[in-house]
Amino acid sequence: ILAADESTGTIGKRLASINVENVETNRxxxxxxxxxxxxxxxxxxxxxxxxxxLYQKSSDGKLFVDIxxxxxxxxxxxxxxxxxxxxxxxxxTTTQGLDGLGERCKxxxxxxxxxxxxxxxxxxxxxxxxxxxxxxxxxxxxxxxVICQENGLVPIVEPEILVDGSxxxxxxxxxxxxxxxxxxKALSDHHVLLEGTLLKPNMVTPGSDSAKVGPEVIAxxxxxxxxxxxxxAVPAIVFLxxxxxxxxxxxxxxxxxxxxxxxxxxxxxxxxRALQQSTLKTWGGKEENVKAAQEALYVRxxxxxxxxxxxxxxxxxxxxxxxxxxxxxxxxx
Length: 333
Fold this sequence. Notes:
Radius of gyration: 19 Å
Number of strands: 10
Order of helices and strands: EHHEHHEEEHEHEHEHEHEHH
Number of helices: 11
Structural class: alpha/beta
């Protein structure tokens, strides 16, 4: 899955990084570049859109939704309304957007969307995540998921534990297990059909201020946390990249798919920054760079498609920015 559902504010930051103005025409130009890149769509099965993009057309007047469908890719939609702070906590948050969600889902389905995404955000600290934060976010995700299913959309359940901090991989693994266990309890309580959901978790990694470890270590800790918490009824797990560099995210996914252990679900990707960074840098907002930028996107899509099969050789031509960390502290989407 390509996550191209950045809100207007977030896409503005991406465009600012290449000195491009955040106006509708530029946002549309970037997304058209992504959705019409030769060879990219066959490597994908879904693209997550922001509401504006769901109704946008390409420069030749064709709805983006139709371009995706003709390419054999399902359009999805981000439905949450961002995070707000939980009072009485140390900066922990809960996600808004349940009000009127049923009506919006119905409208999005009619516009061609077939799946949805809702991002819950948790953080690791001395006393975080708190029980309150885990509970609130798990039940928010479950309520969202069942409302989506009532309206024909497959919900992507995304409990992102931020990489921010100096904790080690063992701490991240323990927190990930606690959070996922709570999420599946909540989904069960809400009668969500697990076969009709996807999980979009963080990979289990050391904190951003901690020493790095190899892909094999990340793979082992991540898959073990999932084995302990994610029911076999869930068809697929699509990882978020969470600020890893493009190449890191691909290598970690590849290592998981090479692990010889029980994996009852498909392990795949739902990357935003880790599919778009080198494309964005190559494009730079210039018409004459579109072809080269689309080639850069194809390189990353193909590499991740191979990683999903565990056959990535680490031989992708690294585009501009492919090896740089995309970590943003306290990342807002």
